Each structure stands twice: as structure tokens, then as C-alpha cells.
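Before a colleague's protein record goes any further, I have to sign it off. What it holds is a sequence and that sequence's fold in C-alpha cell form. My question to you is simply how this chain folds and whether the C-alpha cells agree. Thanks in advance; the entry in question is below:
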Amino acid sequence: MERQETAILIASIVLIVIITIMIFLFIIFQKRKNILLLQQKEAEKKFETAIAETQIEIREETLRNISWELHDNIGQLLTLAKIQVNIAQDDPNRLQEVTDTITKSLTELRSLSKLINPDAIKSLSLTEAINLEIERFNRLQFIKATLSSNTEVRSLDGKAEIIIFRILQEFFTNTIKHSKASTLDVNVNYDEEKLVIHAKDNGVGFNINDSNTQQGIGLCNIQNRGKLIDAEVMLDSEEGVGTSITLTYHYDKKSLPSAVDEND
């Protein structure tokens, strides 16, 4: 009888210990899960903030582009048309020149409207948006720019497209402002698994390991934007040769931080 009671007591103690351990492990798991959920929410909040900031930067860059277009291109064309009208008053044979200049001005205004209209921008693919930038560089004679792309166009996550476009926009801006380059070549290549974009200028280049230079032209910012969407961003530069960027984005990577599985 005593042995039976002892066995029951031991079994009860073991059961209580097991239940206690299970409760303890469950509490630890719940705390860990809550921490992960909190970290995920914070990561998502930071990501959404970064997206909002990027959209504002793109909007500001677009407004600067519009200003340049109006002042450096369309404004000059209209000024030329005014001069030609004055000349044509004495020489009617010059009226065709006026017509040609005004026609060109209208064409430029239509191109500019694509930048002004947000719905038009949203409807563009990433390659089309990049092409608008390339066309603008050539139109304003900032630089001789080319764009090549394969025929396959893969639909990307909208937020990833925003980040990728802004990364390239920053690289282009650095090329125009700092590189003293005469050419800019951009290649967009879609394959079944990833998107690879390579851009290269023939500018003065710089020491890629110089932290002051990196900060001055925002290279760290470009790298950090790539990390937001798990894109690989490789920057390379050589003094006297030029600067290049290679961006690789895998389609299966999510642009938002991964959610915590509720079944864990």
C-alpha cells in the first residue's frame, strides 16, 4: 500500500513538473512571439515610412525636372518662336520655321505632361519610367544616354518598383551633377527568376572606399534603399574610367517584412 501511495505521489510530482515546464515553455514562446510580432510591426512601419519618403523624393525630383524642362527647353523654344515671328513679319517665307518651332514646343509639352500627370506615371512599367528619364537627359542634352531592355517585362511589386526607380534616379542625378560624363548606358534585363539593371557612365570616377565621397553623393543611401526590398546593389567606380551600378532583384523576395506565422 505504501509503495502504491509512493508511486502515486511520484507520478503526481512528475505530472506537476511536466505541466509546470509546459506552462513555462508556453509563456516563453508567447513572449518570444509577441516580441517577433512587435519587431515585425516596427519593421513594417519603418518600411512604409521609407516608401512615403521615397515617393516624396520622386515627386520633388519630378518637379525639378519640370522646372528644367520649362526653363531650359520649352522656354527657349518659345523664345525662339517669338524671334522667328518677328523676323517672319518682314520675310513671310520664314513662317515655316515658326511652324516647325511651335510644333516642336507642342511635342515637348506632351512629353512633359507625362511627368506632370501622376496617373500616367503610375500606369508606366519600370522600364518605361526609366526610359522617360533617359529621353529627358537626351532632350535637354545633359548627357548622351541609351537604354536597352529585353522584351520580357515582368510585373513587379509596386513598392519595389518605387524603390528601384528611386535608386536609379539617385545614380542618374549623381552622374549628371558630379561625374562630368558624356555618356550613360543603362541595361534592363528580365529573366525567369530576377531583374538585373546595369547602368554605367564614363565620368571621372572616384575612390569607392572613400567614406566622405560615399556620403557626399549618397551611396550609403542607395545601399540602404536596396536592403529595404532585399535587392543586391553593387557600386563600382574607378578614377578616370567611370562609375557603374548593378541592381539585382529576385521576384520571389517580398518587399514588405515577412509576417510571423500565427501557427508557430
Remarks:
- Residues 255-264 have pLDDT under 50 and may be disordered.
